[in-house]
Amino acid sequence: MASVPFDSRDGVIWYDGEFVDWKDAKVHVLTHGLHYASAVFEGERAYGGVIFKSRQHSERLIESGRILGFTIPYGVDEIEAAKAETLKRMGFKDAYVRPIAWRGSEMMGVSAQQNTIHLAIAVWEWPSYFKPEERLKGIRLDQAEYRRPDPRTAPSRSKAAGLYMICTISKHAAEAKGYADALMLDYRGYVAEATGANVFFVKDGALHTPTPDCFLNGITRQTVIELARRHGIEVIERHIMPEELSSFTECFICGTAAEVTPVSEIGPHRFTPATISETLMNAYMAEVQPKAAAAAAE
């Protein structure tokens, strides 16, 4: 299925309150969201037929739209029902869930306050990237040229489509050199995140992670911090300078797609995935399973 283009797959997509054939879920070439990046989205994952922290994602989607200056015409409960029904109709248990909202095509120009706000939800099958034993080998990261912008110049608290332009450029550049991803600094020169995942480091038994003051405080990131504290691991959120990287012994990235994935290399810096990375990788995989997550919530 991975080789089938996304516009040629089978199934249905929830689109503005109705289910349409996958191949018919289209927008006009003069859609504002395409030209001016007035679009927000979520990346979610279903395990065993249950979307992990689904409601938090729906709430963040609505908030992201608000930050971009538009109101998504559906409430959290409506979005939750639409996601669940889409997952059910697609018949997948382990899947990726992508809600996206955007400004339509009534007006073309920077100002488009009267444009219709659309919402679509697509679901596709997506098992884990790596087997646990493969993941523990660690992936290699390059160092990105682009930096996460000053929050005074970009809506960094929104999961906005436009913020990912430099992520795509950076990831493509890293892959061209044989790396899996790239580590981005922020506008001040501090360590920020990977192109689509947050980053954590280990030093003297404690977990260190950059303060998310100019990039997204990921839902997976928040989950990992909670799991670390449950396991008695100290978590330190702070500004991290790139010259500190050589002082850390372990490193991993985390996100909906990456889950918890250890890192063995960032440019000239080397890390050895060990106890803390493995503990949190396993704890996260246990947490996302429906039965384990339900028990933890009780």
Written description of the protein model:
There is one protein chain. This protein is an alpha+beta fold. The chain folds into two domains: 6-125, Aminotransferase class 4, branched-chain amino acid transferase, N-terminal domain (D-amino Acid Aminotransferase, Chain A, domain 1, 2-Layer Sandwich), CATH 3.30.470; 132-294, D-amino Acid Aminotransferase, Chain A, domain 2. It has eight helices and 16 strands. The strands form two sheets. Strands 8, 9, 10, 11, 12, 13, 14, 15 and 16 form a nine-stranded mixed β-sheet that branches. A hairpin with a 2-residue loop joins strand 11 and strand 12 (206-210). The relative contact order is 0.13.
Strand-helix topology:
Blueprint: E1 12-15, E2 18-21, H1 32-36, E3 39-41, E4 44-47, E5 50-51, H2 54-67, H3 76-90, E6 95-103, E7 117-125, H4 132-135, E8 139-148, H5 165-176, E9 181-186, E10 191-194, E11 198-203, E12 206-210, H6 219-230, E13 235-238, E14 250-255, E15 259-266, E16 269-270, H7 275-288, H8 290-297
Parallel strand pairs: 8-9, 8-15, 12-13
Antiparallel strand pairs: 1-2, 1-7, 3-6, 4-5, 4-6, 6-7, 9-10, 11-12, 11-14, 14-15, 15-16
Helix pairs in contact: 2-3
